[in-house]
Specification:
The complex is a heterodimer of chains A (about 525) and B (about 1000).
Chain A: H1 2-27, H2 40-49, H3 58-72, H4 92-99, H5 101-111, H6 115-143, H7 166-184, H8 193-201, H9 209-226, H10 232-245, E1 256-258, H11 266-269, H12 271-282, H13 287-293, H14 304-307, E2 308-309, H15 323-329, E3 345-346, H16 348-352, E4 359-362, H17 364-377, H18 385-406, H19 426-442, H20 447-460, H21 465-479, H22 500-505, H23 507-514
Antiparallel strand pairs in A: 1-4, 2-3
Chain B: E1 11-14, E2 18-21, E3 29-33, E4 57-61, E5 70-74, E6 89-92, E7 95-96, E8 120-126, E9 143-148, E10 159-170, E11 200-202, E12 205-207, E13 223-225, E14 231-233, E15 248-261, E16 264-276, E17 283-296, E18 301-315, H1 322-327, H2 336-340, E19 344-345, E20 351-352, H3 359-362, H4 367-383, E21 385-404, E22 407-426, E23 439-461, E24 466-487, E25 510-531, E26 535-546, E27 555-565, H5 567-570, E28 577-591, E29 602-607, E30 610-615, E31 618-619, E32 627-640, E33 645-657, E34 659-664, E35 673-678, E36 680-696, E37 700-711, E38 714-717, E39 724-726, E40 734-738, E41 745-748, E42 774-778, E43 783-793, E44 796-806, E45 809-812, H6 813-820, E46 838-842, E47 848-850, E48 868-872, E49 888-889, H7 890-895, E50 910-911, E51 914-925, H8 928-933, E52 938-953, E53 970-971, E54 978-988
Parallel strand pairs in B: 6-9, 31-35, 45-53
Antiparallel strand pairs in B: 1-2, 3-8, 4-5, 6-7, 8-9, 10-15, 10-54, 11-12, 13-14, 15-16, 16-17, 17-18, 18-21, 19-20, 21-22, 22-23, 23-24, 24-25, 25-26, 26-27, 27-28, 28-32, 29-30, 32-33, 33-36, 34-35, 36-37, 36-38, 37-43, 39-40, 40-41, 41-42, 43-44, 44-51, 45-50, 46-47, 46-48, 48-49, 51-52, 52-54
The chains are: A mainly alpha (about 525), B mainly beta (about 1000).
Amino acid sequence: MKTKKIFSAFAGILLLSAVSCQSKLEGLYLDPDGFTSPTIEGFYTNTQQQLGIFRYSYGEMFHDFNTLNPVLGSGGFQNDGAPSSFSWVHDPYSDAYSKLRSFAAMQQVYNGLSEQDKQDYEIFMWTAGAIKEYIFHQLTDICGDVPYFNAMQGTDLNFFPPFDKQSDIYPAMLANLKEISTNLDGYTLNSSFIQQQFPRNDVYFNGNITMWRVFINSLRLRLALRLTNVMPDLAKSTIQEVLADGVYAKDRATSITLVDRRQDQAMELLIFRSLSERLTARLFVPANMLNLMRKPGFADDPRIPVLFQPDKDGNYTAMPTEAPDVAAIAAQITTTDLAATFPSMYNRTTFERNFGMPYQIITSSEIHLLKAEAKLRWADLVIVAADEYRAAIKESIDIYYEINALNTNTTYNGYIPASKAVKPPDADINTFLDQKTAEFNAAIGNEKIGLIYDQRYIHYNMLKPYELWADTRRLMKELGARVRKSPSNIRMMERTVYPTSEELNNPTNFQAVKAANNYTTPVWWTGR
Amino acid sequence: MHEDVTGLNEVVVTGLNIPRARKALGYSQGTVKAEQLENIGSPVNAFSALYGQVAGLKITGTALGPAGGISINIRNAVALYEGSTNRPLFVIDGIPMLDWQTDINRSTGNGLNDLNMDDIASFDVLKGAKAAVLYGSQGANGVILITTKSGTKKRGFGVDVNLTHSQDRVWLMQKFQNEFGSGFPAAWVNPGVVDAEGFYQKNGVQAYYPTNYNFGPKMDGRQILWYDSVMRPYVAQPDNIRNFYRNGYTSSANVALQGGGENGGFRVSYTRKDYKGIFEGFKLHDNNFTFNGNIKITSRVNFKLVSTYANTFNHNSPPTNQDVFVTYGVPRQLSTELLRTQVVDPANDNYFWWAMENRQTRYPTGGIVRDGLAGNYFWNQMQNDYDNTRNHFINSATIDVDIAKGFKFQLLGGFDWVTNKNEQKEKLRRPLSMGEGGRYYLYNSTDVYYNGQAIVSYEKQLSPNYSLNAFVGGVIQKRTSEWTSRNTRSDGFITRDWFSFSNAKTTPVESNGFRRYSLLYGAFGSVQIGFKEWLYLELQGRNDWSSILPPANNSYFYPGASVSWIFSEALKMPDWVSFGKFRVSWADVGRPGPEYFANNVYDIGNYGGVITYAPRGSRPPEDLKPERKREVELGLETKFLNSRLGLEVNYYNGNTYDQIMGLSVPPSSGFGDTKINAGQISHSGIEVFINATPFRTSNFNWNTVLNFHSDKPKVKKLAQGITTQGLWGMSGARVVAVEGQPWGQVVVRPYKVNENGERIVEGGYYSTDPTKEEVIGKVLPDIAGGFNNTVSYKGFSLDFNIDYQFGSTLVSQTNMYMVGNGSAASTTAYRDEAHGGLPYYINNSSTLVLLPSHTSAVPADSKYPFIMHDGVILPGVQPDGKPNETIITAADKHSYYWQTFMDIQPDIVYKNDYIKLRNIVLTYELPKKITNRIHFDRLAVSLFANNLWYIYKTMPNVDAEALNGTNVFYENNAFPTTRSYGASIRASF
């Protein structure tokens, strides 16, 4: 009996200690510094603030300036005449999917919610869905066919999505954006705790549903125009739908521009550092752009002093485009003193040292030019092309002056007072606009679209390379060399290659795109 | 100094510190007795004495040499995930040691560096799975058991003294060209920058070209205007890079006192080590106290305590300074002696010479010489402090109790405790009135590995023929790791050089921290049955419960079995067979994953005050299991001719499975990789160990040991249709595991060729094909081993140790960049007419046009007022198939190897085979009759040399062990190797 008791006590102690051991093991399993209970709200804000969606990131722009400025003629450089060999260190492919990671995590959490919670969170999901399409349109424009329909499903062990055709992705993106736009039409936030959090977590528009519709509809317009060569009917019907809806970027108030909320990190993480580091290599005033802004017989484009800053002699001088012309002025080129360079540079006050600048996501100028082009393509649209053309230039002048004026920093190294531009009187601007409108009206055939392209070239300049690159490639079919602003020795880069790891990590699916894995095969919507 | 397989009745320490008769072991175990190594000197790192000593044990240094970490690997253990360790478990006197991988950037090595050779009695290397099975989830990479010296009663005072000093000299370095100085060819610059002879023009005279690239004019001794506006002869400085370094030394003094009697013994020892590195400012001081005592408390209870305390102070271990040492190069005409006088400026309150008097602008040199060399090397190493103080306690206490006849109980407890303090003090280089500066950084860490184990054993002779030896026990281990750091922000100090956080311009100062904990419980048991002392069967097993694994699934069992058959006892053998044993073993052991590996956790942040959650790019495993290795080992141990010839051969075949992998997946899946247990790597290897005494007379003896290990880990399977897995630790190339291929292949982008295999030349240049990859080698050797000898004559003995390895490839950025920046000897090709350069001119369209002769007149459309002589036309064809006719400059050809993203080209990757005479030691042991007369028990004097000679070496310009760390496979440092010569005196009295 006694033995039995002792045995029981011993067994009891053993059991207790086993339980306590197990709980000690469990207690140490998780990383004390790893967070385990995230929410949709936090993923949502993270989706919005990913570098490279609205805030142009340092690394990306650093390489973009190097590769795309010569290809698009949007940044002057010391052209040595060597034939261009393609290379782009930025990897937009991996970058785009990593930006989508928080969206996929949102989706994952959302799928596990109750029906009631799902309803309250739908505003988060819809608006994040629009950001997803924004990321995808940029990606497919650069890479052509990419995984879209089955992408981002690694959590469910689907690691190897097939490459979807751009011709399937575009209609799907447009359909999705249309659906989101419809869902948001007349939508108001309810009084639930979840929905009351939305304005705080929506760092783009602070819960303003109408601005979301402006963004989504304007994006639909941009996507529609990409299809002029390949799906003109879908392009036209989409444009008609949005025009009928009436909610899109029309003026400064409805232009989609966003201001960074972490300006303390701006120089380290964002475009400013790339501008600073590439300034003397890739950001001289490009001659082709300055020539367009200073046409004989026309008033100077009022944007010259906001886009560019004067050289050592107080003049706006351009870096020549072709190598022999560069060689001819080689001895005069100087960048040692940034306050006295030759030739002129992009305006450092407007761009390089302006951490509070509004990022131009979709501006009214873009939409005005888009509408003008649409009218030229589909005469039955109720649009006055010349008015749109004029408004585009005017609003472009306005926004660049606005941005330049925002910057009050006059103490950075190499600052020159002339980089703070004084806006000309309205009368002068109107004279210029009248001349430009007259030129547009006088143009015949495709030249009108050519002029529209020129305005895109100036408006986007080096700041928005992806938009300029897309329009260049799209219009090359109809306008050919008319839309080429690069030196003659720089070939057109039509797309970029997939990361080398793709062939290793997704080998079967990769076969479908292997033939186009180069820099020279035009993407589908170019129609070439 | 040899692995010992002799001793029929030898007792060795086996797993969990359990002593066993060697003959009963059913597996291979390498034992190295310290007395065999004592003559090598007092290595800064005790493990560096083990080169080539044990078949299957591979020691590889890093470029930092003995003061840094060391890579130790048994049987080519590899992993598929960087966080999985491939290092063996180190156990000292029964206590597992803290151990971690190290790099070479101001590295102070790890805790193993603190072990002192003079206090070590033996190393036992448990190589295979069965040998290590009692370590369960920690046994897969093998185990190294370290036993410290214990004390016994000795004659005289019981004092041992060992004094050693060696001089360390720069030995292996790059081979440079000494014909052309810094500069650019005329074709690279605008007309007027250089003259017809290629000289840079400053103030109208020929001047020092302010760049680091050595594509300038020939150094012919003429006077030119130096960067500091003084005329000096333009001559090569063949030793300018050698002069970055100085002579170093290693000195060590060890005093040990020991004694004892019937009831126990003790040994207490103190060692002081001083090391002066070849790098400016680098030094190391080490104080080491060891106590090893045992006492019979009662007739049944014995208590043993081993306690080691090491305090190491490391000052200015060198940083990797790739910009200067590797990437950009240093002008061949640069005088390092002159530059050394241009570091500190005494005329300006000892600020940085280049920061004062506007010299940066007035004296253009290029940023590499000024900031990289004068600033980041000389100034930082000589003016700043980068100090590490490491306190290292290892304690092991054991109580042995004779419970009853045959029953014994052992309780062992202890810990390995390491604290590190890193303190960095960076002085202002210029007055605060000129700009921000100064930095203070303080880092503190504590790492502890606690271990407690209890064993009950039973031993009985069951019958005249059968014996039983059994034990059961349990183990508890806890590991904690914590650090915090603080540093002043980038705006630096308020006042000059006061190293306090109170002096930070911006407060609070930046601070960071980290913590990591894990816990392990284990239970084990063992049964060994012996038959007639010539057949032994052993069954062992261990179950581990680990906090690293998901709680639902954290228990795993590791079994093992072995048979040992001493056929020389069982069968009638000819006389010349002294001993023969055949053994076979099988076991399944594990390797713990890194802590928190399977955690599904998120990063947290804020954007403008709004909370953000970020998923990680790595998908955690659904259900993590430990990595495991299952291995069969067959072994033959024989001795012939009165044990004058011994041969041990092991064959093993293992399969590492359930490996932790960070499986690279397409980014379109939403992850960069997914962590899973998958993947199998097969190992099958042979170890051969021959020891012989070819000559033996009363006065003369030659002992020789040859060992050899061959093992090619092969990737049998990855996972889920994945056939290639990217590995880690490479720069400029990729290391991959490809299904069906050897582990660790190195792949690079091949040159573009046409269908006939001819190199394609575009615009005059070759280029690599970004869409293709080609295997150019692998990171592990196929074979490695050692050849160790002791020749003794009367009181003299001569030891020489050779080790070798064949079959691996070392990616060396140094070899690439020194061509790319024009410093390599090979880059003199085509630089001028004498070196085969072609004549050409550059026309107004900037096109290079071939000329018929070096004396051709300057054509009318020439952009420059002279013709050039450094043209070259690369052999190859244009994309359209026509032969290449485009002329480029010699500098263009060579500088092609200068790649912004370090992508190395296939023609500049070398095999890393070597045979090395690692050391020679000559020792004279004074005869007893003399030592007795002066009341010494022993007196021996040794002369030694380490790193003596590469008998064979394929790797140009850098050492075969020039690696950038213990877990990487490339070189990007150009640190020279040192050779040391020294002497030691050993005395006992």
